[in-house]
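Q: Make up one entry.
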Amino acid sequence: MKIDEDSRTRDRVCQAVVEQGPVTASDLAHRLSLTAAAVRKHLDALAADGLVDTWHAAPPSQRGRGRPARQFVATDSGHAAIGTEYGDLAAEALRFLSSTGGADAVRRFADRRSAGLEQRLRPAVEAAGPDPGRRAHALADALSADGYAASSRPLQVGDTPIGVQLCQGHCPVHRVAREFPELCESETDAFSRLLGVHVQRLATLAHGEHVCTTHVPTGHPPPGPAGTAHPTTVHAPTERQSR
């Protein structure tokens, strides 16, 4: 019984790192209502299993005085541990589609996949009303329910809100998206349509970041009729693109 309880708690810690990382042990303890010592024990076990790792934000010379608290992020194995992934099979299928139908066929597939996601999430987003900020928070909740371990954080300059940072701590296709960035690009387009504003993808799990990050502006009018937004997506070159 004790082993089962430890295993469930360890799964909760792993899930929280995926969703909130980079995150400290003390923050996890507060979030999960556990002692810091218990969290550190589970983090050590997760690190030994290759599911979490320490996040290095900047070289030591660029940090302030004092020793900062260690922050943890999930590894690829950690992301895979919280959901079923068929990355190798999906990548093989998309390579075949690309070789037989070209890049346009891959993009059409990505758009169809994102359209399905958009259809599932739209009722929850629409229920939040017209405000982009409220819609972004609703989108994060809906994405979490769909398995993306999402969260949202308001951004502001002084007392002036400037937007919402939408984070996705997990993505079931992030390894495939390293080779096929069309998946990320199409998803970002779907977010723009759902939110009614021009969103910008700033970071992705597919390119080695600890989380997918999308900036949602809240102080500007929508870019135009649904489907006309052209969000800027930041991507590092992939092996397929650099050939």
Remarks:
- Residues 57-64, 220-243 have pLDDT under 50 and may be disordered.
- Residues 148 and 170 are 5 Å apart (CA to CA).
